[in-house]
Amino acid sequence: MSQNVYHEIVITNNHRSSNQNADIWTVARATQLLSSADEVVVQIARRQLRDTSKRPGPPSPTRRHRWTAKLLNAPVQGRVARGQDLDKSTKDLARLQSSRSGLSFNAWSYWAKLRTNGLAVREAPVRLPQKKLCRRCRLTTETTSHVISTCPVHLPEMTGRHDRVQTILMDLLWDLGIKAVPNTRPAKDDRAVPDVTVTREMTPVYIDVTVPFDEPANLHRAGQDKRDKYSHLGTVLPLVVGALGSWLPENDAIRTTFNIPHRRWNAARLRMRASTIEDSCGLARGFLHL
Q: Per CATH, the architecture of 154-287 is what?
C-alpha cells in the first residue's frame, strides 16, 4: 500500500489492504509526513490530504505529478528526491516502502527523515557560524550529507557500508560462475586497487563501488571519478549506489557486460539499495545517539 514518497507522495484513506500490517505502515508514514519538522513537507502532505478528502477515489496521475514536481524542485528538501528520481525503470523504492520491505522498521521510519532533510543537524541558517560545525569532527558544517557521507569520524561505518555492497555484487558474480576477484592490484608498481576484477575473454574488466550522497550531480561525479581513477587499467564499470538508495541507470552496464539474467540482477540491485539505506539510517541514529 505504501508508495514512493517522491513518485507518488500521497496520503489516502480510500484504499484498504487485506494485509493489516500494510494499513499500519501507511498510517505511520502519513503521520511522519504530517508531523514533519520541515514546513515544505508538512504543507505538501496537508494539501494532498485535503485534496484526497474532498475527492473520492485514488489521486489522479496529474495531481501526483504536481506534488512530485513540487518536491523535486525544492532546493533543499528535494536533493535526495532528485537523485532517486534518476531511476525511472524500477519499482525498487516503492517496494522498500511497502509492507513487503526488506528494511527494518527503524530504518524504514528513519529513512523518511533523511530523504527530506529532517535530520536534526546544525546547518540551520539561524545558528551562528561556529555553532554549525559538525559535533563530531569539528571540521565543516554539519549537514545531512556530511553526517552520512563525508564525516571522517564515520569512516569505519561508511567503509562497512561500501563493503556490504561489494559483497552482494561478488556473491552474485560467483553464483553465476563468473570468476571475480576482490581487491586485487593489477601491477606491483600501480597503487590502484579496484574493488572487483573480472577476466573476460582474457581481458580484465574492473568494477569499483562507491556510495556517495544522493544528489544527482554528486552521484554522476562519483561515477566519473571512478572512471578517471582506473581508466589507465582498461575497461572500468563504476557501481554507484546512493547512501539513501539512489541508483544510477549506468550501473546496469554491469548486467549487460556479463549477461546477468534480469531476475538475478534485479534481486541483487534491490539488496544493494536496501543495504545502503539500512546502514545510513543506523549511522544517522548513532550520530544523534538515538
A: 3-Layer(aba) Sandwich (3.40)
